[in-house]
Amino acid sequence: MIPQLTVTETAPELSPQEIAARVQPHLENNPVCGVILQIAEDLISREDNWFYVPVRLNTQEPRTFEYYDMLVEIEDEIARQERLRVLLVPAG
After folding, report:
1. Using CB atoms within 10 A as the burial measure, which of 19, 62, 71, 73 is most buried?
2. Quick one: average pLDDT of 18-40?
3. Res 11 pLDDT > 60
4. Where are the domains of the chain?
């Protein structure tokens, strides 16, 4: 579960490149079954206080439940450490 946050940054203050730079280290620190995730930076969007960050697999896809569990864990870590509301969205 994502903790309740007071988001102090707004969309105009954070570009897609800045969001990607803050999210990428968390993707690298959470390897599951040899999975490597890459951000689809050109597809990053924002709705209200949430940033939608599409990610692509650079390796063979793990089991579906492991993949989605991993994404949720990374989202929670980003919320705690970066104080950002991020949804990691699998990109095609």
Report:
1. 19
2. 82
3. no
4. 11-90
Fold adopted by 11-90: GMP Synthetase; Chain A, domain 3 (3.30.300)
Length of the chain: 92
Q: What integer is the mean pLDDT of 23-31? A: 81
CA 17, 25, 8, 85 torsion-angle sign? positive
Q: Tell me the pTM.
A: 0.77
Residues 6+ away with beta carbon under 8 Å from 77: 26, 29, 30
Strand-pairing partners, residue 54, are 89
Task: Please name the residues in contact with 12: beta carbons below 8 A apart, sequence gap of 6 or more.
Answer: none
Between CA 1 and CA 21 the distance in angstroms is 23
Amino acid letter, 75: E
